[in-house]
Amino acid sequence: MSRVLVIAEHDGSALNPSTAKCVACAAELPDPEIHVAVFAEQGEAIAAAAARLAKVAKVLRIDNPANAHALAAVLAPQIAALADGYSHVFGPSTTFGKDLMPRVAALLGVNQVSDVMSVEGAHRFRRPIYAGNVILTIGAPADRVVVATVRAASWQAVEGGNSAPVETASVDAELPGHTRFVELSAGQSDRPDLQTAKIVVSGGRALGSAESFDIIYRLADKLGAAVGASRAAVDAGYVPNDMQVGQTGKIIAPDLYIAIGISGAIQHLTGIKDAGTIVAINKDAEAPIFEVADLGLVGDLFTLVPQLEKALS
Amino acid sequence: MERILVGLKRVVDFNVRVRVKADGSGVETEGLKMSINPFDEIALEEALRIRERGEAQEVVVVSIGGSECQQQLRTGLAMGADRAILVEAAADLDQLTIARVFLALVQKENPDIVLLGKQAIDNDNNQTGQMLAALWGRPQATFASKIVLDGTTATVTREVDAGLETIAVDLPAVLTTDLRLNEPRYVKLPDIMKAKKKPLETLAFSALDVEQAPALEPVAWSPPPQRQKGVKVEDVAGLVSALRSRGLVR
Ligand SMILES: Cc1cc2nc3c(=O)[nH]c(=O)nc-3n(C[C@H](O)[C@H](O)[C@H](O)COP(=O)(O)OP(=O)(O)OC[C@H]3O[C@@H](n4cnc5c(N)ncnc54)[C@H](O)[C@@H]3O)c2cc1C
Ligand SMILES: Nc1ncnc2c1ncn2[C@@H]1O[C@H](COP(=O)(O)O)[C@@H](O)[C@H]1O
After folding, report:
1. Which ipTM did the prediction report?
2. Are A120 and A136 spatial neighbours (Cβ–Cβ below 8 Å)?
3. Distance CA A62, CA A47 (A)
4. Mutate to test the interface with B, among A111, A195, A222, A242 (most CBs of B within 10 A)
5. Distance between Cα A301 and ligand 1 center (Å)
6. Of the candidates B50, B42, B37, B40, which has an alpha carbon nearest to the alpha carbon of residue B4?
């Protein structure tokens, strides 16, 4: 039997969709019993949301003022203390999980399996390396706890409708005071979330300025889409960092991805490999993005994008 | 502040597209261009700027792997590091063991900051800094895009999914770099000459008294599923009708 502890991601009030994907991955393990742990200042609503996820057997709620913000140095010792008796501890491959889970693994004396894209057995997984150019099958020691992060883009969220029991848990761990939260400046947007949107429209360096990026937003709004960007567009300051798609940005899997004025560097393509349909608009017919695009349109984006927006009206 | 320790991993250059060996027994790296992991170059640049502002005395670069890692260490010295340490070990050492090696060096060198990349672009693990911080019992500030020091604490802005998070950590601490922290300097020829005279110490892994962690075992390598090459449409009308016929837009 696999006894799996899934670490819930949340923003203090709502459960992040990455948690339902971690549960989906955990459910692929042999004969799984899945518990979700919610570390928060006041985790009642979050725990209730986790309890609705299919396949979850139990939700553990660990309320503590120290858990108001997700600080890895504060959470890791609590998770390590709670991990006793579990065969697997899973977290999402988001910046939350990437920051936290290796610290947990080190406390438990094991290596971490990063970015699980498929489960081949209780101790065998597949994961991407070299910016997704190679898929590695990896075995973890059978006599140790498995600590892993789950690559969200590879998994479909489990359904809702469950009503798993919620238990209040306390953990015996010494919490450090050496790390303090100062502030979070979150991009304010009424648009869909980049990581869960069905349609994503992204712009690249070719946009040339923050003002010109407006045509990307307008097209996105017409489609009800989220907006992404290449690293070059973020570095140039056209858009904030949380919009970067790729190896070192967000890995996404929308049904439709529209890349506009993006050349298609391997680091960018890594982020969109799992998209349903990829559309590329680029003035260079030889741009590498056309190697992966299902539908390509060659031409000047400043002409084509407004045309497209109009055609969709 | 006295000393900053910087990790420099030797990796296949980011411009090279690697392939799986024909017999599926590994990744073909023979003859490929090797470089300093891009995130580590950013880590070194940041350490040098801190030293140049007078906020640290010494920058020490560290690489763990085969003797060929000397190349990357020499490049690091040419960029401006003061000295280098090569820990000679198998090139495929696991991440937790590497974190233990860093811990052994931390105990020897007493740095105020250990600056690492957020991830090595070969294994894409994104683990070592967090593991070292755990073993050392010290703070971590990962994915840094801005670092402000005031002697006893570092205030670090981090690139997170929701935007930019700022945390304050007491020193000593482990910091890991994201791409927008800085733009690394180019190495100039005279600096390469000067770097040849800078100290490069070699330590054997076996001399560090580090216990090897239970490693993950690579079982098989395969190329990713290839996407079918698509079609080019003539114009916007063609694009819209193709999208409609796939039911992707109304
Ligand atoms: C370690 C590392 C990690 C990285 N991680 C990422 C990552 O996560 N995400 C990412 O995106 N990149 C990443 N990169 C950067 C990546 O290598 C590329 O540099 C980047 O993706 C290029 O962005 P771009 O396509 O917008 O710009 P460019 O490569 O400059 O492409 C611009 C494109 O626009 C086209 N164009 C120009 N004008 C027009 C016009 N008027 N109309 C239509 N088309 C036009 C051009 O033909 C060109 O193809 C990373 C790099 C490194 C080294
Ligand atoms: N063999 C190594 N030698 C030097 N530094 C390393 C080594 N392995 C990892 N690092 C450091 O740890 C960071 C993260 O690596 P990883 O956890 O493998 O993604 C890298 O960017 C380096 O700064």
Report:
1. 0.95
2. no
3. 10
4. A111
5. 15
6. B50
